[in-house]
Amino acid sequence: QMKLVESGGGLVQPGGSLRLSCVASGFTLDDLEIGWHRQAPGAEREDVSCIDKTGAITDYADSVKGRFTISRDDAKNTVYLQMNDLKPEDTAVYHCGPTTGCPGTAYGYWGQGTQVTVSS
Prior knowledge:
Strand content: over 45%
Structural class: mainly beta
Oligomer: single chain
Number of strands: 10
Shape: globular
Largest sheet: 6 strands, mixed
Number of helices: 0
Order of helices and strands: EEEEEEEEEE
C-alpha cells in the first residue's frame, strides 16, 4: 500500500523550531519532486516549499524564505522541512506530496498532515 506519512509537528513557542518529516512507504521518493503545503483554518492552502528529484533545486514561499529549509534523504525515503524562527502565522496542518516540478502543481496522493501550532 502506498502511503505518505508526515510527522514532527507539535506545539512550539514563537521563535522556536521544528523539523517535519515526510516518509514514503510502498513506493520510493527518489524519482519524484516533493512539496509541502499547509492549510490553516479558514485560510486557503498555501504552497510552502518544494524540492526537485536531485535535491539541487528548492523553492519557498516568500512567507517562509530564510526560515524554512527543505531537504531529502532518498536512502531513508524521506523529505524533511526544517522550520526555524516559527511565528504564530505558521500555525497550520502541513502536508507533503508529489508535485509536477519545483515549483509545480500538486498531484496524486498527499499525506494526512501534521499539525504545527505556534503559540506562547
